[in-house]
Amino acid sequence: MHIILFGAPGVGKGTQAKKISKEYGIPQVSTGDMLREAVREQTELGKQAGSLMNRGELVPDDLMLNLIKERVKKPDCAKGLILDGFPRTIPQADALSHLMKHLNFPCFTCIEITAPSEIIIGRITSRMTCSSCGKDYNPAITPAPADMMCTKCGNKIKSRQDDNEETIRRRLNVYQEQTAQVKHFYEERGTFFTIDGNRDVSEVYASVKDILKNIK
Questions:
Q1: Are the CB atoms for 20 and 26 separated by under 8 Å?
Q2: 169 annotated active-site
Q3: Predicted model pTM
Q4: Known catalytic membership, residue 170
Q5: Which among 69, 160, 189, 199 is annotated as catalytic?
Q6: Of 13, 71, 123, 183, which residue is the catalytic one?
Q7: Residue 70 near residue 43, CB atoms below 8 Å
Q8: Does the annotation mark 73 as catalytic?
Q9: Are 209 and 125 in contact (CB under 8 A)?
Q10: pLDDT in tens, 59-113
Q11: Domains present along the chain, CATH in parentheses
Q12: Has 171 been annotated as catalytic?
């Protein structure tokens, strides 16, 4: 069960990924997680990535694909994984597809979660995070306590600096111009599904599970 949760920032991908991971026993893997883990473990690829990141340079696609190759071979991915943050372009999607075929793994199934822009903006501008440990607080799922002190570490909860309307609209525009095109790649291969994310979390997850039943 190899899944890509796809959609604009704030549609609820992270929330759904956590629910899938818990029920189906497959890890949620972000490209950021992979990079940090490889650098921390000082693998050969991690050393290359760390050197680039220290210089403020982007990690090239071929290196990211090799990191994914390493990651999917780990024991916790035996039943699959949920890929977060990749692919962001059609060339990346194409390269990922070739990698999975080379490894004799099933191709990724892409599940798009959608929501109107104004709903997304409202969600993101209302979420908060701990200034110390980074725990997220969302009014609909994990509301912040009245004293605005983190329930995990006890430090101050505050709005994220980049969660303002102007920045969010810019991120949504970038998504539509660049990343949204990736869905056509999966549509053409019959491995693309769309669900309405403008509903209660449990209702969205019920739709996700209906899709997952057919890709086991």
A1: yes
A2: no
A3: 0.81
A4: no
A5: 160
A6: 13
A7: yes
A8: no
A9: no
A10: 788 888 988 888 888 899 999 999 987 898 899 999 999 999 999 998 899 999 9
A11: 2-115+190-213 (3.40.50.300)
A12: yes
